[in-house]
Amino acid sequence: MNARVSASVYTSHVPAIGAALDNDKTAEPHWEPLFAGYEPSKVWMRDNTPDAIVLVYNDHATAFSLDMIPTFAIGTAATYAVADEGWGPRPVPEVQGHPDLAAHIAHSVIQQDFDLTIVNRMDVDHGLTVPLSLMFGRPDSWPCPIIPVAVNVVQYPVPSGQRCLNLGKAIRNAIESYDEPLNVQVWGTGGMSHQLQGPRAGLINAEFDAAFLDQLIADPANLALKPHVDYLREAGSEGIELVMWLIARGAMADLAGGSAPTVEHRFYHVPASNTAVGHLILAESGAETP
Questions:
Q1: Active site residue: 13, 98, 104, 126, which one?
Q2: Band of pLDDT at residue 287, cut at 50, 70 and 90
Q3: Does residue 65 fall inside a structural domain?
Q4: Total number of domains in the chain
Q5: Which domain holds residue 256?
Q6: Annotation marks residue 30 as catalytic
Q7: Active-site entry in 194, 265, 269, 279
Q8: What confidence tens digit (pLDDT) does each residue in 222-247 have?
């Protein structure tokens, strides 16, 4: 039996969420509603822990600076240190990789005409560790290996939604050609609407966010055609991070002729720090619990 994609997970990766977790502020009035919204997800994840996760995120000038900006990069290391982003590394477990599956995905996706940058050593920042904390809590070790896929959504030009959706399809093809019976999830992180600077700092557009989630579930092919200017105008300068969710969505079976996924959980909350937080779990129809 070969590997399979069993689910996709989508979540914001706000750095202040990590700080709230790490400093025991989750029960405070500002934070309690947000963390309560992830409790069903933690239960679902305990019952559906995968063998590996392909986690799509954007680096925040930690592993990559303006000196070198890959559009798409895949980590193929055995371990990834937790980055020091200026206030010390988060007190979370070191991230364990899956070098064999990562190398297979890199080979397969590059043969499908995507130019991935292969990264054999890098530190991972809040873009990757905050989603893990939201879904797994505070374990002594993460329950499965993680394959980081870093996407440039910081410095223009950034990849189109269509390119991201197609990359997700290519990642699914790669996983399904891996000759071990692994249960793999693909996660898309970042967003939702937010802007961190300028006259529109603090922008939140709940109407746009809800429509994005609706279309991500029901009509990802047309959502992938949304131009970048729409994200910028409606969701703020950092709202462009949402194109990374299309990579995870592209990895689902319905875009390869299969059945539509099942919505396991959907959650939206404002504000978290000065941003909107969105979250979604889509499971493949008929996927078995491991």
A1: 126
A2: low
A3: yes
A4: 1
A5: 4-283
A6: no
A7: 194
A8: 999 999 999 999 999 999 999 999 99
